[in-house]
Structures are given as structure tokens and as C-alpha cells.
Write a structure and sequence with these properties.
Elements: H1 2-12, H2 21-43, H3 48-70, H4 80-98, H5 106-118, H6 120-152, E1 156-161, H7 166-177, E2 183-185, H8 193-201, E3 209-213, H9 221-229, E4 233-236, H10 244-247, H11 250-262, E5 267-271, H12 275-283, E6 287-292, E7 299-307, E8 310-317, E9 320-326, H13 331-346, H14 351-359, E10 369-373, E11 376-381, H15 387-397, E12 404-408, H16 418-430, E13 435-439, H17 443-452, E14 458-462, H18 465-470, H19 472-475, E15 481-485
Parallel strand pairs: 1-3, 1-4, 2-3, 4-5, 5-6, 6-7, 11-15, 12-13, 12-15, 13-14
Antiparallel strand pairs: 7-8, 8-9, 10-11
């Protein structure tokens, strides 16, 4: 049972054989539950009744672990790789015990069983260490074959990167270009080599445009994807402190995101409202387009109007302009639309068709999605986990009348900057909310930021998201506005 949980943690981290604090805590729980078994097995004279007691206790251990795992929100996906790895984690201790039959005494053998049970999570780590090279080699072959197929097509290749807004831009751009071309884009938020490869495998050869997100968790990720796809066009949305646990510094994030524009063959589009993307634009020596929400850009948004029903602005491009209306909320979506419009115009899509595509766009689920339910206005931004997105969402929150209630789990993967980032998040929340519900491991840092920001409203703290959600009934009132910031999985 513990192997399943450890495998789930590893699966969420791309099958990395690592020990994190969640896994360590689960290991200690596993040992704690197994210890009474050792007492019964080794220090009592066994008869039939004692054997039954031991058996029953083993059942209790299994049932307890099952109930704990069942309450987790992040579940193991039983992919082919997961099944093979789990089978291997069962075979390893079984093989170890089988070799000891007839060699160890009965007492020693029972002690061996206890050890196997107590350290069972580490069999998962061992299995991952043994099997990962095999699976990684298969993935490399699959990715290489997919890229060869992509190169054989005549599709125009576009890649989008940035610390935020990649998925939104991909969806917006696909809608615009579909007005003129046959378009295929990566599904959901797939932005890894395998996610891109799976999309390529769906291609029939008739597609005229291929759009992919380029995500990165460490140095080399963007460069790998750029060199493989060889994009004709690219969009850079911006840079902010993301995945600092693996990148170590914001400079490394900047340098890695820059790899996309460096490897773009024709035109790179930059969000020059972001100071890091602006720096990339100035340093870029190839074809480039500056996009802004001011009159300095090659393409820019003017006369911006934000409402709780949507947004409108005037898209100015070259010698022309057109009014744009969208149901998407927030200034960040206006920037995303302008970025995509700049590239769509470059690729020959008429401004009228761009405006038509934008008008028909629907919010991406959990990305500043507005929902009205049970008398409560909900701004679901639960997929967002960066300060840039939070600030934009808070601007939208201010557009709504009524009491503002924020549910926050903070920002993760900040590495040594994690406390600082969450402290700043708290200071941002302090000026825009009346009630803050904190939960998870970042609650202390966010709470400190709220205090430093002079927050005078109510603060509720809960150990996890389930308990926080269960308290909605006593906290929320009719016509409240509930802002959901970062619905973290329970692997953090």
C-alpha cells in the first residue's frame, strides 16, 4: 500500500527517484504502524490465537493505509509505466525473502518481514532507479521519431514559452489562426517532450500550423524542445519567479526562456510589458515584434476597459486598428490576446477575423474562470501559482462588489525563495480582501505577509484544502466573492 503512495509522489515528479518531506512523513507512518507487528511476532509465544491477532493487525495496517491514501486528492494513474514499476516494487522484497527461506531462523525471518514492511517505500525508490533508464530510453526514441515526423510535414511551427500565460496564449492563438489555417495544438497544458510528441503522433499531415507550449523546470529544457521542433515563430509571455527549487535563480529562468527566441527561425513576439521579455526583445538579433499595453509597441492595446463581465480594448497595429471584445477577465488576458494577434496578423489573418475569434473565446477552466453558484461569486484561478497572475486576478476581484474572501495555499517550488514569495503574496492579498482562508505548508509565510501588509480582516487557518473547503458553509455569506488562488495537489 505504501508503495502505491510513493509511486504516486514519484509520478507527479516525472518519476524522479527523490525523497521529499511528504514521502518521509509517510515512511515514518509506515514504520509506526508496522512496529506492533514486530512486538507480537517476536516477543510473544504464539499459538493459534496469537497468529490470528497478528493477521488481524496486518489487516488493520493495510486498511488504515488504504483509508489514508483514499483521502488524498492526487491519485496514482495506472499507466503502463506505473504498473510495471509497482510490480517491480512487489517482486524485490518477495525475492529477498524467498532467498532467506531455510537460511534464517523463524524469529529472524519474522524480523526480516518487518524490515521489508517498514522500508517498503524505499523499494519504490530502488525500482525507479533500476527501471527509469529503460523508460527514459524508450521515451527518447519515441520523441525522436515524433520530431522526425514533424520535420516531414509542411506545417508552420510555433512555440510559446514564459513563466505564465502559455496555455492561454496557445488557445487564443489557435482560435485566431483557425480562421485561416488548419491548426493542431498541444492538449491541455502539455508542454514537455512527451506531451509534444503525443500531439505530433495525432497529426495526419494535412495540418498547416503546429502550436506547442514549451515548459521548463530546469536548465536545458527549453533548448531541447527548441532544437527538436525548430519553430518558425515564437511568443514569449514573460518571466517571473517560477520553479526556483530547480532553477535556483531568476537569472537561470530568464536565460532558459531566452533559448526559444534564440532558436526561432523567422519572427519572435515579446510581451514588453514584462521587463525580462523586454530585455530579451532588445537583445534579440532576429525578426521581432514588440507587444505592449501602451503606444510604444509595434502592436499594442489602447483604451483598455476591464469589467466583471469581460474586457474590451482597441487593438492598434501598423496603420490600422480594431475594437476587440472578450469574455476573458483581467488585464493579463488582454496582453495574451495582443501577443497572439500580433503573430496572427504577421501570418496573414485579417483583423476582422481576429476580433471574431476573440469574441467567441471562453475562459480556460481554473484560469480566472467566473462561476456563480449558491449565491456566491467565484473567481476560480486555482491553476495559477505565480505573483504576476495573482496581481492581475486581484485587479479583477476589485471589480466585484461585496465581501472578498480569498482561499490561498500560496506558491510552491520557490526553493530558498519560497518563504519570501509567499510573504509577498500575503502582502498583495492584504489590500484586496476582507477574509483570507489559509491552508497547507505555506500558510505561515502568507499569514506573515498579511500582517506586514496591515491586513485587519478575518484569517482562518486549516491543515489542508479539504478542511478549508468543509468550512465554506460557516464562513461564506450570500453575495460574497470567493477567489480561489492555487488549488495545489496534496503532493506539496
Amino acid at each position: 500500500m505504501t508503495q502505491l503512495r510513493f509511486l504516486c509522489l514519484a509520478q507527479n515528479a516525472n518519476y524522479k527517484a527523490e525523497i521529499n518531506k511528504r514521502g518521509t512523513a509517510f515512511s515514518f507512518l509506515n514504520i509506526l504502524l508496522a512496529t506492533p507487528y514486530l512486538f507480537f511476532a517476536l516477543f510473544t509465544e504464539r499459538d493459534t490465537l496469537d497468529s490470528v491477532i497478528i493477521l488481524l493487525y496486518e489487516c488493520v495496517i493495510t486498511a488504515t493505509l488504504f483509508l489514508i491514501i483514499r483521502n488524498y486528492r492526487t491519485r496514482l494513474k495506472f499507466t503502463r509505466r506505473a504498473k510495471k514499476t509497482y510490480l517491480f516494487t512487489l517482486v524485490l522484497p518477495a525475492a529477498a525473502l524467498a532467498t532467506c527461506v531455510g537460511v534464517l531462523s523463524e524469529q529472524e525471518y519474522l524480523y526480516g518481514i518487518f524490515v521489508c514492511v517498514a522500508i517498503s517505500p524505499f523499494y519504490t525508490l530502488l525500482s525507479l532507479s533500476i527501471l527509469n533508464p529503460h523508460f527514459e530510453k524508450k521515451n527518447e526514441v519515441f520523441f525522436s521519431q515524433a520530431m522526425e515526423k514533424l520535420r516531414e510535414t509542411h506545417a508552420v511551427k510555433i512555440m510559446i514559452t514564459g513563466s505564465y500565460g502559455k496555455t492561454a496564449c496557445k488557445n487564443i492563438l489557435a482560435a485566431m489562426l483557425s480562421k485561416k489555417y488548419s491548426v493542431i495544438a498541444t492538449e491541455g497544458n502539455y508542454n514537455t517532450p512527451m506531451g509534444i510528441a503525443f500531439t505530433v503522433e495525432r497529426m495526419t499531415g494535412k495540418e498547416e500550423v503546429f502550436i506547442a507550449e514549451a515548459g521548463a523546470r530546469r536548465r536545458g529544457d527549453i533548448k531541447l524542445l527548441t532544437e527538436a521542433v525548430k519553430p518558425d515563430y515564437s511568443i514569449t509571455t514573460g518571466v517571473c519567479p517560477q520553479h526556483l527549487a530547480t532553477f535556483k535563480s531568476l537569472h537561470n529562468v530568464f536565460a532558459e526562456k531566452k533559448e526559444l527566441s534564440k532558436g526561432t527561425k523567422k519572427i519572435s513576439v515579446f510581451n514588453c510589458n514584462d521587463k525580462y521579455a523586454l530585455k530579451m526583445y532588445r537583445e534579440h538579433r532576429g525578426g521581432k515584434i514588440m507587444v505592449c499595453c501602451n503606444k510604444e509597441g509595434d502592436v499594442y492595446a489602447d483604451n483598455v476597459q476591464l469589467t466583471k463581465e469581460g474586457s474590451s480594448f482597441r487593438l492598434v497595429h501598423g496603420d490600422g486598428s480594431i475594437d476587440i471584445h472578450t469574455k476573458l477577465l483581467g488585464k493579463h488576458n488582454i496582453i495574451n490576446i495582443t501577443l497572439c494577434a500580433a503573430l496572427a496578423l504577421e501570418m496573414g489573418v485579417r483583423a476582422e477575423l481576429i476580433a471574431e475569434a476573440v469574441a467567441s473565446l471562453s475562459p480556460v477552466p481554473h484560469r480566472l474562470e467566473y462561476i456563480y453558484a449558491n449565491g456566491i461569486h467565484i473567481l476560480d484561478d486555482s491553476y495559477n501559482s505565480n505573483l504576476v497572475g495573482v496581481r492581475s486576478a486581484l485587479e479583477v476581484l476589485d471589480l466585484f462588489p461585496g465581501r472578498k474572501v480569498v482561499l490561498s495555499q500560496g506558491i510552491v517550488e520557490g526553493g530558498r525563495y519560497n518563504a519570501k514569495l509567499n510573504n509577498e503574496l500575503g502582502r498583495n492579498l492584504s489590500n484586496h480582501s476582507d477574509v483570507v482562508i489559509l491552508c497547507g505548508s505555506n500558510a505561515k509565510s502568507v499569514g506573515a505577509g498579511l500582517k506586514e501588509g496591515g491586513f485587519s480582516g478575518e484569517i482562518y487557518r486549516y491543515g489542508d484544502l479539504r478542511r478549508a473547503q468543509a468550512a465554506f458553509g460557516k464562513i461564506l455569506r450570500k453575495d460574497d466573492v470567493l477567489f480561489l488562488q492555487n488549488d495545489l495537489p496534496d503532493v506539496y
